Every structure is written in structure tokens, then in C-alpha cells.
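PROTEIN DESIGN WORKSHEET
SECTION A - STRUCTURE
LENGTH: 200
C-ALPHA CELLS:
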């Protein structure tokens, strides 16, 4: 008598979650159907059934990883206010994202940058960019929104690649310049005497 197949409707999602853990721990070089099957505790045939190639698995993993910052952006109440400045809440959101689990942020960017070598990932990477641009374009214009996304990407990559610390005030100032928002007036230390002009 043939053995009945166990009903496991969430197996595909568990395989994607396992792939994210493998990449987070060992990088994309450590990803294979075998390592993912072991991580997900499923038969090897399950991974190849749901994902015929590693590129298909990476596409699913990248699409899931993309939800991190994008979800925070869409759900931010500060960005829902039509007349409120954008630079400060965007800098704060980046800080919250970068200040969370660093491994998760690194994982998102590793998958994102893998599109340089894996053309199959490029449409998914573009999806993330277009989704964030569309969210920001509702508050500004599309060209400025793209510049803001490029700046945020650059700031995050610099922090990750130099093992640096995220500077929220610097990010706010740079975003304000791109968004053409008036900068805050600098506050003078009250203990310092006022500067005097000297005649020459």
C-alpha cells in the first residue's frame, strides 16, 4: 500500500525561511538545495519540487527579504502626513532599521547585490526600488524619490561595509538637501561668547 503524502501547505514558506537562514549564516556561496533541505528539515526532493533552480529559490528569498524596510516605510504614520517634512522621519526609519538585527540588514543587501551576478534577481531588486520610489513619490516627485532611495542605499552600504555607526543627524541633513527642505538653524552653545566682526 502506497504511503500517503503528508499534507504540508507551509512547506514552501519554510524552505524560503531556511534559505534566508543559510545565506545569513554562510552567504550565498553556502546555499544549495541540500543545505536548505537540511536547514528546513525536509527531504531534498521537496526543495527541487518547489524550486527547480537556486535562482528561483533566491528570487523567493529576495522577495521576502525586501519586505523589511519597505514595510516599515509603508506603515510609518509620519510619512502619511501630506505636509510634514520627510527628511527627519526617513532618517529615523533608517536608524530603526539599521539599529535592529544587523545580520538581517546585511542579508537583505547581500541578496540585493547578488543581482549583479545573477540576472534572474534583477527584476526583484528593481521591484523593491520601484515600490519604495512609488511610496516616496506620493510625497514628492518621482525623480526626487529616486534620488532619495539612492542616497539611503548609499548611506546603508557605507555603514555596513565600513562596520561604522549610523549617524541619524547626518542622514537627516543629507536627505533634507536632496528633498530641498530648509535645514534647521544651528544652535549656538550658550557658554560661548558671541563672535564679533573685526574691521580690517
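SECTION B - SEQUENCE
RESIDUE ASSIGNMENT:
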Amino acid at each position: 500500500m502506497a504511503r500517503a503524502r503528508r499534507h504540508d501547505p507551509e512547506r514552501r514558506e519554510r524552505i524560503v525561511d531556511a534559505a534566508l537562514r543559510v545565506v545569513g549564516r554562510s552567504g550565498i556561496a553556502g546555499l544549495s538545495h541540500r543545505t536548505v533541505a537540511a536547514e528546513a528539515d525536509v527531504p531534498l526532493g521537496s526543495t527541487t519540487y518547489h524550486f527547480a533552480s537556486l535562482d528561483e529559490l533566491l528570487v523567493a528569498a529576495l522577495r521576502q527579504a525586501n519586505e523589511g524596510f519597505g514595510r516599515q516605510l509603508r506603515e510609518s504614520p509620519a510619512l502619511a502626513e501630506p505636509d510634514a517634512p520627510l527628511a527627519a522621519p526617513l532618517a529615523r526609519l533608517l536608524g530603526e532599521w539599521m539599529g535592529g538585527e544587523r545580520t538581517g540588514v546585511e542579508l537583505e543587501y547581500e541578496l540585493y547585490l547578488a543581482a549583479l551576478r545573477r540576472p534572474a534577481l534583477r527584476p526583484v531588486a528593481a521591484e523593491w526600488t520601484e515600490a519604495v520610489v512609488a511610496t516616496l513619490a506620493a510625497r514628492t516627485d518621482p525623480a526626487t524619490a529616486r534620488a532619495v532611495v539612492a542616497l539611503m542605499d548609499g548611506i546603508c552600504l557605507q555603514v555596513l561595509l565600513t562596520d561604522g555607526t549610523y549617524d541619524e543627524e547626518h542622514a537627516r541633513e543629507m536627505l533634507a538637501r536632496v528633498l530641498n527642505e530648509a535645514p534647521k538653524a544651528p544652535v549656538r552653545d550658550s557658554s560661548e561668547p558671541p563672535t564679533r566682526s573685526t574691521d580690517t
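SECTION C - NOTES
The CA atoms of residues 133 and 141 lie 9 Å apart.
The radius of gyration is 22 Å.
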